[in-house]
Amino acid sequence: LNKLVAEEWNPQLGAIGAEAEKMALKSTWQETLNRGGPTRTLQEAAKKHPWMRLIFPFIKTPRNLLKFVGDRAPVNPLIYTEYHNARKAAKEALAQGADQAYREHSRVAAEALGRLSTGISLVTLSSYLAYSGVITGAGPKNGAARRNLQASGWQPYSFRIGDNYISYARMEPISTFLGLMADVVEISNHT
After folding, report:
1. CA 96 – CA 91 distance, rounded (Å)
2. Residues 174, 175, 176, 178: is their CA dihedral positive or negative?
3. What's the rounded Cα separation, in Å, for the pair 135 and 160?
4. Whether the Cβ atoms of residue 149 and residue 97 lie closer than 8 Å to each other
5. What three-state secondary structure class fits 139?
6. Rg (CA), the chain
7. At 126, which helix (H) or strand (E)?
8. Residue 170: alpha-carbon gap to chain centroid
């Protein structure tokens, strides 16, 4: 333990504090946007022209929520690439006896695998709930069919518990997985 603390802790760098701040920003969806990226450009334009906030009141948080979902989407090839590259780098570092590099690459690989596993679990659970009728999606596009459903008490993007519906629309980022899969199931059932 003392060896690990000696290698990881550097009072001048404040590594633990920096990591804690990074995690706090990540957990509240406030991570800094990439310089030169479209959302960063939009955010900077909105700072220069306050009237743009009427059209785009929130920029950073929605983008970070979508990034969270994308980083866990089982169809995202970047997750697989990140995992395999990190595992390969960890094996090479281990072969060279570079303990610090091995730990860092193993951490990156574990995080990528964790994100992928979370995404697969959420997609599987959401699909099961949608096929079982426990969650609803957007519902029919046909106005008359939609009104008939709503007249019976049906609600879009909701959990169905008995005859009651409870919206999951504001449960981000989980609601994105639920809604996407509920919509996929509804579309597949009506084609």
Report:
1. 9
2. positive
3. 6
4. no
5. coil
6. 22
7. helix 99-131
8. 14
Residues near 25 by beta carbon (within 8 Å), at least 6 away in sequence: 31, 32
Please name the residue that has the structure tokens 């029919």: 140
What residues does 164 pair with on adjacent strands?
161
Q: What is residue 188's three-state secondary structure?
A: helix
- pLDDT tens per residue, range 139-188: 988 889 889 989 999 999 999 999 899 999 889 889 999 999 999 999 99
Q: What is the pLDDT of residues 94-114, one digit of tens each?
A: 999 999 999 999 999 999 999
DSSP bridge partners of 160: 165
Question: pTM for the full model?
Answer: 0.74
Tell me the two tokens of residue 95. 């072969």
* CA–CA dist 110, 118 (Å, integer): 12
Supply 117's token pair: 């596993």
Residue with tokens 């303990």: 99
